[in-house]
Automatic annotation (TrEMBL):
EC number: 1.1.1.169
Organism: Ampelomyces quisqualis (Powdery mildew agent)
TM spans (from-to): 12-37
Gene Ontology MF terms in the entry: 2-dehydropantoate 2-reductase activity
UniProt KW keywords: Membrane, NADP, Oxidoreductase, Transmembrane, Transmembrane helix
Enzyme class: oxidoreductase
Purpose: Catalyzes the NADPH-dependent reduction of ketopantoate into pantoic acid.
The protein's name: 2-dehydropantoate 2-reductase
Gene3D superfamilies: N-(1-d-carboxylethyl)-l-norvaline Dehydrogenase, domain 2, NAD(P)-binding Rossmann-like Domain
A GO biological-process term: pantothenate biosynthetic process
Family as reported in the entry's similarity comment: Belongs to the ketopantoate reductase family.
Amino acid sequence: MTSTNKKSVLVIGGGAVGAIAALNLDLGGLAVVTLVLRSNYEAVNKSGYDFESCDHGTVNAWKPSVVRNTIPNITRESLPPYDYVLLATKNIPDIPPTVVDLIAPALPKNNTHTTLVLLQNGLNIEKPFLTSHPDTPVLSGVSLIGSAEISPGQIIHDEPDKLFIGAFPHPSIPSTTLSALAQNFVAIYSAAHKTQCTHSPNVLHDRWKKLVYNACLNPICALTGLDTGRIRLADGALEALVKPAMREIVEAAKVCAGVELEQGIVQWTIDMDPLESYLKPSMQQDLEKGNFIEFENLLGEPLREGRRAGVSMPTLEVLYGLARAVQWRSKEARGVVGVPRRQ
Ligand SMILES: *[C@@H]1O[C@H](CO)[C@@H](O)[C@H](O)[C@H]1NC(C)=O
Ligand SMILES: *[C@@H]1O[C@H](CO)[C@@H](O)[C@H](O)[C@H]1NC(C)=O
């Protein structure tokens, strides 16, 4: 295959998840990868990434074809439109800029060429794009991966990259077209034969299933400061917090999306990682680093869907209120909001 047959892929976000995706796409040889970085740009541009990876072994000083610290404006820079734009940043809609504003310069006007791939968690993440770019096909990437960036450009990858790709339903693009785009992306991603990337058409099933963890254990660990092992040991936490929250998600999945999650999904999710791994979910890691948390798409959207459908979600209501207040605390710390001073 000549290089002209390669697909051009713009990967936005090169943290622990985006870097592995970019590496994997590059190694497969079917993609020319441009990677947009922010905080780790200096380190990666100078020395490349170093990976210790369960899928790829030790890889040192790796860089994709192009590394940038800005989103390309394809109009201003006269660049051909990308075949795929893969978004692997955190999704924090309550903090500007929104992901829609972020990627806008990289998409053609009234785009029909570029397929968007959202490698992000949570519910309804495609909705803003269907409004802002109504002709753009949008794919869902649900990733089960254990990886961390321990310092800029240094990636430890200790749980295999398992990626489920499917198309979000689209009001005007035929499902056969969407399905072909999803399968093409799976082929490009799988070409290195290092990871498990599968076409999984039931996007809502995959997303609700992951919410059993992400809307429940993730914020509960963040808010209590207890990792997924300690929350299982903590007095009463599973029965009072974790299981009720998970049962609310299971019910909402059924009522809102017609998604019947597997029997035993609650206990399965609790037991997913060995207790002794004492893993910290992403929101807990983010809070400890003083970062904003992704609570709106992980917790707010399933709660709002459930409310609209009349599902009783008392545990998630409280978790959402607490998460929102904690986010406000981070906003004040970062100067995004201020408090009135005594006159
Ligand atoms: C991209 O650049 C063009 C030309 O300079 C400008 O008009 C346009 O607003 C830019 N697009 C975005 C989304 O920033
Ligand atoms: C883009 O779409 C809008 C709304 O559908 C339309 O009014 C406009 O003419 C289109 N522009 C181009 C360049 O096709």
